[in-house]
Known about the structure:
By secondary structure, the protein is α+β, with helices and mostly antiparallel strands. Helices cover 34% and strands 21% of the residues. It folds into four domains: 2-96, Topoisomerase I, domain 4; 172-296, Topoisomerase I, domain 2; 298-347, no CATH class; 360-420, no CATH class.
Amino acid sequence: MQVAQSLYEAGLITYMRTDSVALSPEFCAQARQWLAKQDAENVPQKATAHRQVKGAQEAHEAIRPTDLTRPSAQLRIDLSADDFALYVLIWKRAIATQCKAARVRQTTIVTRSGNIFWQAKGQVIEFLGYSKYWNNLSADVELPLLKSGQSLTLNQATHERKQTQPPPRYSEPKLVQVMERQGIGRPSTYAPTILTLKERHYVDLTKGVLQPTTLGMEVDRFLQDALPDLLESEFTAQMERSLDDIAEGNQDWQHFLTQWNEEYFAPAIENAQTAISKHASPLSKFTAQNHAQNQQILQKSRSRCPECQSPLSKIPSKKLKKKYFLKCVEGCEDVVLFWSEQSKKWERPRSKSTSPSKPQLTEYSCPVCKSPLEQYAYQKDGQNKVLLRCSDPKSRSDSLHKEVVYFQTGQGWWSPKLGDL
């Protein structure tokens, strides 16, 4: 999501926190034009439309590139390796949705030996279609040409002994797929959910799969006693459906909250308090061990704490370009340093009590009310950023002005809804 956010802010893709599969008519027309020039036999008779997933958030269209014709050679230079790889993934997926279907010839051969029937299946891809850009088809498996009633000679027979295996552990993509199928979470919550599981050491990523830790298993046992309903996937899915009904005006929120509190929440809290005393000791032990392990794992920096002069520890963070920030773990409170790209040194974050710099008026006009646009500076993930917005504070609160926001890119000011300034 961090990489996708950078592509969105650079104006290369549409809004990415969506699970909609709808594409704008303008993009579909652009995709057909591109295919007509580059891959004419892959253009369907009419623009392809895909069935929406039940419960999908359709406020935004599907994730897609804003311009299909951007030269990839230049993007490879301008973007980082991760940014470019994700952009290509989105580009291929978007163009594949507008192609013809693939044509696959499937063959099944059934033979008989006495009273036993044997079956062999094969397939040959006759026309690649969409799979030319998004290949999710298995490789060709050609079977020999046979006639009905033809006698066959057995050349070789082997057998393989197998035992029933337990279901495999989830990989990260598989876990997201299962959550999506069961109606749990939204695209913007999948990545943070998995990140939380790993950061709290409830699971470890081992050989590409998520393996529960001892701490994770103990927390699971505690929750099974304290809040058993909370661990049922249907509980979360039903909660999200109820919230959707409230948002759509189909259910009264006051009645829902009152009923939910009486029938579930109040009894659940009483049950949880009983379970806490039972599990407090084991959980405290695992939490203390986990904290001690974290202290040992953290790498030390050459930079020293400005208060106690002890070496600062490197705290990993995927939200930062530096991939970590510095913190004193020797007892000093609130000593945290972030890397500044402007000064090229480690600095403390700006205090919340410090008033932000006064916005500066620009020569640009608001496209809604014609008031001057102001340049507003803010901090995000320890980095200084700038945007343009309407200078009239009263107008900014209405619905027409919500889209009047321009971000600073390498090519100038750009808005996700209004385009280049």
